[in-house]
Amino acid sequence: MLEVYMDDMIVKSHEETDHAAHLRKVFEQARRSKMRSTLRNAPLGSEQAKCEQALQHLKKALSEPPVLSRPDDEEVLYLYLSVASEAVDAALIRETTEGQKPIYFISKALQGPELRYQLIEKVALALVNATRRLRH
Asked: 77-133: which CATH number, 3.10.20.370, 3.20.20.70, 3.40.50.2300, 3.90.650.10?
């Protein structure tokens, strides 16, 4: 799967073993299309090392379950909303010196007419659901 944004391209593979081949195909197509990249002058070895480091960091993060933390008074909190075809989710996050730490997770499976909501309606539903669940 390939997702292209204004400034970024993301290549996703179902299997880690297939990822190098998928990247090779994307770069070959980019060369044929004469696309330009800001990484053009970067040595491949350093980029490969950075990718490997990022992959190892991601593996470590995914292998350790997140521990919910308690926010301090007057601390700025962030609410991340996630919308999928069959569920809406929210994560309340605090920023620390070690990175972002989860405080609370909320998830709601969509049922009946909610499954047919437009994307913006699902985002609104995620926000309303989070607001109701996070009341003091």
From this structure: 3.10.20.370
The answer to whether the beta carbons of residues 92 and 129 sit under 8 Å apart is no
Q: Rounded to an integer, what distance in angstroms lies between the CA atom of residue 20 and that of residue 66?
A: 29
Q: How wide is the angle at C-alpha 17 spanned by C-alphas 14 and 21, nearest 5°?
A: 90
Q: What is the pLDDT at residue 118?
A: 94
pTM, two decimals, is 0.52
**Cβ atoms 79, 90 nearer than 8 A:** yes
Q: What is the per-residue pLDDT across 52-61, written as a single tens digit (0 to 9) for each?
A: 888 787 777 7
